[in-house]
Amino acid sequence: MSETDESTASDSTPVEGAATDEEPSSAADDAAPAESSSDADLTELVEDDPETHTGDDGARYAPLEVEGLRKEFGGIVAVDDVSFDVEEGTLTGLIGPNGAGKSTTFNLITGMLDPDEGTVRFNGEDITGFEPHEIANQGLARTFQIARELEEMTVLENMMLAPKGQVGESLWRSILPITRGSVREQETEQLERVWEVLDFFEIDHLADEYAGNLSGGQRKLLEMARALLTDPDVLLLDEPFAGVNPSLEKRLLEHIHELRERGYTFLIVEHDMDLIMNNCERVIVMHQGRILKDGTPTEIKESEEVIEAYLGGEV
Amino acid sequence: MSVDDLRGRFEGLFERDVTLVLAVLGTIYLAYILAGVAFGYELRGQLNSIANLTFYIGVFGMLALALNLHWGYTGLFNIGIVGFMGIGIYVTALVSKPPVAEGGAAQVGGFGLPLFVGVLAGVVVAGLFGLLVALPALRLRADYLAIVTVAFSEIVRFTMMSRTFQTFTVPDTIDLWLFTFDPAADTVGLGGGGGLILNYTDPLEALLRALFLWEPYLGFVAFVQQNFISNNPKPVIDGVVYGIVLLVGVGLFYLLLSRTGKSPFGRVLKAIREDEDVANALGKDTDRFKLTAFVLGAALMGLGGILWYSGRGSITPPSFRPNITFFIWIALIIGGAGSNTGSFLGGAIFAGLLYEGPRYFKNLVETAFELGDAPRNFGEAMAGFASLDPMPFVLYTLDSISQLRLVIMGVVLIWLMHNRPEGLLGHRKETASSVDLARPGSGGSTGNPAAADGGEEQ
């Protein structure tokens, strides 16, 4: 194939290209955790979103608001009147025993399921009933409980898939000689970012590997890296530590904390009570489809209901 | 780009694709030429045999490539290929056949438009039917799409045979809202069970005329007649040249589809094949991608059908039975779904060995061993075993080799499924990107292997 000189043939500017050169968010200037062995600079990854800058009037801006969410599966109420919001720049944990409705809530928020009642608002817009891809394009990215990699695609292909607004996703732009140059240009720029994120998550040595050959932990890393490349405001992580060994768990947590300091917002579903208690500013406890308690880790630990319904039941 | 760099590129190319394709094609052609020598073919016979082989390599190569877009890339289980092929050639016939009044023996005429208009119309209409099938069906999961497509291809075939659509009388003037026109056609239709006589300009002639090569071509034919083949060489040369045209067509299909594959678009298609929910969660409107891919593939299948049948004197509905669809599937499975080079190789190997091969094998054995007449039925064939004489059975088997072809294909398919389900080139990394994904600024494409890895629990 003779595509060698096409990249120079066209000089049109790709739509998304400028985004990577934007000013880094101010949060990025904070000191990174000392443990981070990566020398990758993530500042360029963070989009400068005007909505993320709130005044110092105390109340933090909540990009994600859930109100009165309800979902039934053939008579069984999986999620019942669930309301909460996720404040910007926080790590919010959603915990509860098996079958509490955590994953269903996730699926309702991200459009994989349609709620029977209730609304989901994201950045002030009602996104209830939107298609998953529309929600993702609003800036709400998710990972899956069981890491779902695109197995017969390489790690690099997995990563290159994620960025939004790729001009080459139009068939005609990709095949026509005149426009293919701009596609190549954009992909080249995108590639730099992809490598930065690979470095950040320290999976760059796996770049050419098929995603299906990765270990469970590596898949979790890849999935989070991939979600990050969609430039989300809020990341919803569905059990990111399930099946991950302690040392990788520690690394994942470091990554999450570092990203949070850079302005990302996280909502994490997790089984592990201690992990959530030690790392989240705010914890939402679900039980039998309902919200049992919503508060700081200290409040949750002292709550009689929670101990009875959740901890007490388990011990 | 330096000379070394350029050479490196070409060497890489040779290592990967071109060598393999040329080696396989060379082997097949050599085998056919040797078989021709064994049969004692003159030049004319050899050319005929080569033209025939090239024809099937061309059409199966193209159709396997088109199917690869559906199945290999997007994971769309289309088993209605022949339906799109049929639509392509029937629409071409309807548009380009001359009206009955000028058409000689034909009972059903067409609109008498130039052939290239017909081909274009055939491709577009095949694509539109692809849209029609895909719109409701793509919301269903894989197996249901398969049922819808195979049903669709049978509906197409029954429509071709139907008496209702056999002939229509076209009114002298057609009054459309904005304009009125006077079609040349008098009687059009699908011809029913008798099919359609393709009495338009010979497609090769139409193509060569369009390229202003018709006169030189006739000169060349005359030259061959004087020097090599004295007795009417034109049909033979036509065949060879048409074969070459088909191979050029394959090249264009390959170019188009590898560009489609090696792009962000192709990357999303692959992602849909692997896990549609993930693609969706990453913000890709998967329905749109599936629809586009399905329509493009269907249009290419229509073109494949046109190129397959347009050179024939006539088309009849029985040519469009689902077995053609399964031939193309076998070709794709041999070559390896997911790889464009593999798809073409699969098409070539299928055409050379499984589709045309058994017949040549039979002729070869018969020429070599001067065998007698074959038994007329299975009973007689088995009767030989009573006197421990296997010859009647062998002869019977050879005699029925065209029917046994399907059995051979089945055996090959089962063997492949067990031993090499990914096909010849299926699991190769045809990276879905328009650029090299190596780390920018570094030579190799792997990162620093010394970096900490996340694979502790392996």
UniProtKB/TrEMBL annotation, chain A:
Family label: Belongs to the ABC transporter superfamily.
Organism lineage: Archaea, Methanobacteriati, Methanobacteriota, Stenosarchaea group, Halobacteria
Region (Disordered): 1-61
SUPFAM superfamilies, sorted: P-loop containing nucleoside triphosphate hydrolases (SSF52540)
Gene Ontology biological process terms in this record: amino acid transport
GO molecular function terms attached to this record: ATP binding; ATP hydrolysis activity
Ranges of compositional bias, category Acidic residues: 41-50
InterPro entries according to UniProt: AAA+_ATPase (IPR003593), ABC_AA/LPS_Transport (IPR051120), ABC_transporter-like_ATP-bd (IPR003439), ABC_transporter-like_CS (IPR017871), BCA_ABC_TP_C (IPR032823), P-loop_NTPase (IPR027417)
One of the Pfam families matching this protein, by short name: ABC_tran
KW Transport (keyword) present: yes
GO cellular component annotations of the record: plasma membrane
Residue ranges of domain ABC transporter in the record: 64-313
Entry protein name: Probable branched-chain amino acid transport ATP-binding protein LivG
Record key words, sorted: Amino-acid transport, ATP-binding, Nucleotide-binding, Transport
Bias-annotated ranges (Low complexity): 25-40
PROSITE patterns, per the entry: ABC_TRANSPORTER_1, ABC_TRANSPORTER_2
Primary role: Probable component of a branched-chain amino-acid transport system.
Species for this entry: Halorubrum saccharovorum DSM 1137
Automatic annotation (TrEMBL), chain B:
Residues spanning the membrane: 20-41, 53-69, 76-95, 115-135, 142-160, 206-224, 236-257, 291-311, 323-355
Chief location bin: membrane
Superkingdom of origin: Archaea
Record's GO cellular component terms: plasma membrane
Compartment list: Cell membrane
CDD domains per record: TM_PBP1_LivM_like
Keywords for this protein: Cell membrane, Membrane, Transmembrane, Transmembrane helix
Pfam families found in the cross-reference section: BPD_transp_2
Residue segments, region Disordered: 431-458
Recorded topology in the membrane: Multi-pass membrane protein
Molecular functions per Gene Ontology: branched-chain amino acid transmembrane transporter activity
Protein name: ABC-type branched-chain amino acid transport system, permease protein II
Organism, as annotated: Halorubrum saccharovorum DSM 1137
